[in-house]
Specification:
111 residues; four-stranded antiparallel sheet; 1 helix; globular
């Protein structure tokens, strides 16, 4: 019988940077233009995105950890707002989902 400790290999664990913002377009036929503003921690960040049908985009290193008031405008027509916490974990990511003419702003990426 072999010694269990002798058969273990050493592993190097590499930290993976979590997304600050994750955007998803559920529409199968529509391309959408989104304007996003995040205000918090003494700063304001604004970005625009073009999401093709069924596509996603994400941003890392965009927001330092903290609480953010998030506003999203869909195709220059309607705005939605939410509040999200951002930090190094996927459970604290700004998640913006688009579909059927609606926008959802929630905190965290489902596992």
């Amino acid at each position: 019988m072999r010694d269990a400790a002798a058969t273990r290999s050493s592993r190097t664990v590499t930290a993976v940077e979590s997304e600050d913002v994750h955007l998803r377009n559920y529409d199968a036929r529509e391309t959408h233009h989104l304007w996003l503003r995040a205000v918090g921690e003494g700063r304001t960040v604004e970005r625009t995105y073009r999401l093709g049908p069924g596509t996603t985009e994400s941003e890392t290193g965009l927001l330092p950890p903290g609480e953010y008031d998030v506003e999203v405008e869909l195709d220059g027509l309607r705005r939605w707002a939410g509040r999200c916490r951002v930090d190094d974990g996927p459970e604290h990511t700004v998640l913006v989902e688009v579909g059927n003419g609606l926008v959802s702003i929630t905190e965290g990426i489902p596992r």
